[in-house]
Inverse folding.
């Protein structure tokens, strides 16, 4: 057998060292609800691991004993010798199983209740799952203070966020493992999940219910910020899109508003106000394109518009016929939408 390559060994070591850290793992809880789940996960691992080791130890002991006394393995001759010590230990075993399972049931109940508790003054966010992107809407009593973005969720640290989860086409599932558990987004039904981030950082959420061809390409970047940074981000997002400045940007805006783009997307401050595709008012400020499929760079944006199906086969976004020059102008306009 060939020895594993150095690269394989290095990645195995890296996995061992970093396996419990990361932007999308429940083993690195960064929120109140994820910590509760972490407690129950560790309790289950501990109780079940302990039982498993005990079972294996008894199995090994039984095999060892049978080998030392071969008569034990003979077919029964009509009566079995009684073994009072074994019978007593069977009682202890049954008591341990009962205590272990009961404690897990009680812990599950307490954790479930604490996660379902209503948080005071939460931040209200409506998340709508679509094939294959997320619409994120921050609700406010004043319509001019409500904002819509896509494929990114910003949350202030230490403030509960109440996510209203809606499905627009098929069943999806919202899962931000560093912050909490999974919750389905079902057409015709509204679900809620509360997340209380406890650590500033960048995380990743992912659709966790198979929803079609691009299910795996349905991610959402999750930014937990200080309240000050969150307010700044929110204020920036509430601004209308900047007017195009250069001739290329002006031509790009004209292309956007006169071709198929305007039928699905919205850009505030323009006539574009469709909602069947991501709102692009501040697209240049987002970290990724196509629901986490590509880093948001001008080159990627250009390739994406040129042929979306190349990156996401089955995607609803059509290939809009544009000349190379028109594509450059369109990208110049979109890149200015910070
Ligand atoms: Cu949406 Cu899987």
């Amino acid at each position: 057998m060939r020895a594993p390559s150095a690269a394989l060994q290095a990645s195995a070591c890296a996995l061992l060292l970093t396996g419990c850290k990361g932007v999308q793992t429940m083993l690195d809880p960064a929120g109140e609800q994820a910590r509760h789940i972490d407690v129950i996960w560790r309790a289950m691992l501990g109780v079940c691991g302990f039982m498993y080791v005990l079972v294996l130890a008894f199995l090994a002991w039984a095999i060892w004993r049978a080998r030392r006394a071969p008569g034990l393995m003979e077919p029964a001759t009509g009566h079995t010798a009684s073994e009072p010590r074994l019978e007593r230990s069977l009682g202890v075993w049954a008591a341990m199983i009962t205590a272990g399972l009961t404690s897990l049931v009680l812990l599950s109940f307490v954790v479930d209740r604490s996660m379902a508790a209503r948080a005071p003054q939460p931040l209200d966010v409506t998340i709508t799952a679509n094939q294959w992107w997320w619409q994120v809407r921050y609700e406010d009593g004043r319509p001019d203070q409500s904002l819509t973005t896509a494929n990114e969720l910003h949350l202030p640290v230490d403030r509960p966020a109440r996510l209203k989860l809606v499905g627009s086409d098929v069943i999806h599932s919202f899962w931000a493992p560093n912050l909490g558990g999974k919750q389905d987004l079902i057409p015709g039904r509204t679900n809620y999940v509360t997340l209380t981030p406890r650590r500033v950082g960048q995380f990743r959420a992912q659709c966790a219910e198979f929803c079609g061809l691009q299910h795996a390409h349905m991610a959402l970047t999750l930014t937990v910020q200080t309240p000050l940074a969150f307010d700044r981000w929110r204020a920036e997002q509430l601004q209308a899109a900047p007017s195009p400045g250069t001739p290329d940007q002006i031509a790009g805006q004209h292309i956007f508003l006169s071709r198929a783009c305007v039928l699905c997307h919205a850009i505030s401050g323009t006539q574009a106000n469709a909602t069947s595709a991501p709102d692009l008012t501040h697209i240049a400020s987002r970290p990724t394109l196509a629901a986490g499929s590509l880093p948001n760079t001008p080159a990627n944006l250009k390739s994406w518009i040129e042929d979306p199906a190349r990156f996401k086969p089955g995607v609803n976004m059509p290939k809009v016929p544009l000349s190379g020059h028109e594509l450059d102008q369109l990208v110049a306009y979109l890149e200015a939408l910070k």
